[in-house]
Amino acid sequence: MAKKTIIVEQIASANRRPAVQTQTLRGLGLDKLHRRRELEDTPAVRGMINSVSHLVRIVDAAEAKKS
């Protein structure tokens, strides 16, 4: 059985944000705008995404295949 993954894209800058939010983005593997990472869908990753939800978005799988 394949592990479920999600694709996360950074849509806003971490400038002028609390350090903990910048560190969370780094933990997700995001450091510049419009970068995408495919991550394993675990509760820990979902929690990190929820804490910086205003800076990232989850990309639809169909949209990811187009680009």
From TrEMBL:
GO terms for biological process: translation. Residues 7-56 form the Large ribosomal subunit protein uL30-like ferredoxin-like fold domain. GO terms for cellular component: cytosolic large ribosomal subunit. GO terms for molecular function: structural constituent of ribosome. The keyword Ribonucleoprotein applies. Keywords: Ribonucleoprotein, Ribosomal protein. It comes from the Bacteria. Belongs to the universal ribosomal protein uL30 family. Part of the 50S ribosomal subunit. This is Large ribosomal subunit protein uL30.
